[in-house]
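retry 2 of 3: previous attempt timed out while embedding magnesium ion. Reduced batch size to 1 and resubmitted. Inputs unchanged:
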Amino acid sequence: RKLVGKLSTGCTEFDEMMGGGIDTQAITELYGEFGSGKTQVAHQLAVNVQLPKEQGGLSGSVVIIDTENTFRPERIKQMVEGLSEKYGQEYDPEEFLKHIHVARAYNSNHQILLVDSAMELANELKDSDMPVRLFIVDSLTAHFRAEYIGRGTLADRQQKLNKHLHGLQKCGDLYNASVIVTNQVMSKPDAFFGDPTKPIGGHIVGHTATFRLYLRKSKGDKRIVKLVDSPNLPDGEAIISVTTPGLRD
Ligand code: ATP
Ligand code: MG
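retry 2 succeeded.
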């Protein structure tokens, strides 16, 4: 078994809450309402993972399975420029974009299949200077939620989601990579999904993800990140800011 790596969020409190950063060989679920910052955190991690260890990275590349067409190369550029500002040295946004491999998933079955492609790519890059060290699925649940409507299909949905998560866990284990998945929760109670504080996919996602982070909006660009039910870390909260140059304290 390989030693667990830590991927820095670039935010002091957030990293500390996570025991130094986002673990490799584990699935970390970001859940929260629309606009709570899930996709922003995912973009920042796609940048940070490429940094050397001294700067909190894993010197690796990233695969993003984008299910809602929310990946924005322009946003990556802003964050890389933000890094240049932060460290007082020049970083080339194009270099960073080269190591972000984005695949669009058109439906839930396609999304599951893309994990196999991601694994193939990780295998090809295994001995390169930028092995895959981060897998992102943003959003994990949107397609499932749209496709499986009605009580009769719920068990089937959970089973598929579970299988999907097991594939992702395998990616994390095999390549000593972090796995980030996002999951939207609703702001208002919903007749079908029920409790708005419980993520779509309910307890299945809850039990498979090793770390669960609940994001919520606060004043201005501030967001509160809450670590929920970690197996080995105390529950806690961290405040971050989502700014144009990226995530900040
Ligand atoms: P959803 O559930 O709809 O996918 P989300 O949790 O992924 O939502 P994000 O897209 O991560 O939400 O957050 C969007 C918010 O991030 C915006 O409302 C804004 O506050 C902030 N944001 C996005 N881009 C920038 C930027 N370039 N500069 C500063 N803040 C930004
Ligand atoms: Mg999003």
